[in-house]
Design a protein that fits this description.
mainly alpha
């Protein structure tokens, strides 16, 4: 009889051990389910290329929009295919109506392109049917500006 009771004790101990193991596994699964590990995103460092956006805006302003512009009205009309008051009205309307054309700061705090720069590029690209790099003297931007302009007009 002693063997029988000894076997029962061993069976009970094994059952308890298995039950404890199963309970631990269930708890771990529940914890992992309720607290999923979020993989950390790799840090990608981007190279900053200083494109002198502010200087481009200043040159654009001084060349065409200041009180004593570098280029006369006829040159403005020839380059933009419209007179200056109409151009300024278009820039103002687009800047106020389409958020893409508003000047913003990027993630590092640097100012982006001004509305004047973006609209100048878009208008010249549409007027002449050329790529962005052909109108890049003040701008330093990609062709998406013209597409954004066309989408929102």
């Amino acid at each position: 009889m002693s063997n029988w009771s000894s076997d029962e004790k061993i069976d009970e101990e094994i059952d308890e051990m298995v039950e404890e193991e199963v309970d631990e596994m269930v708890e771990e699964i529940q914890y992992n389910y309720s607290h999923p590990e979020v993989p950390t995103a790799p840090i990608v460092r981007r190279v900053h290329i200083n494109r002198n956006r502010e200087e481009g805006h200043t040159r654009l302003w001084n060349d065409y929009f200041s009180e004593n512009p570098t280029y006369i009205q006829d040159m403005f009309r020839r380059r933009n295919r419209m007179n200056k008051p109409l151009f300024i009205h278009i820039v103002s309307t687009i800047e106020n109506g389409v958020s893409y054309f508003r000047q913003r700061r990027d993630a590092t705090g640097r100012l982006g392109l001004s509305a004047l720069q973006k609209c100048t590029a878009a208008i010249r690209m549409m007027a002449y049917g050329c790529a962005a790099d052909a109108v890049d003297e003040y701008l330093r931007l990609a062709e998406t500006t013209a597409y954004k302009c066309l989408e929102n007009l």
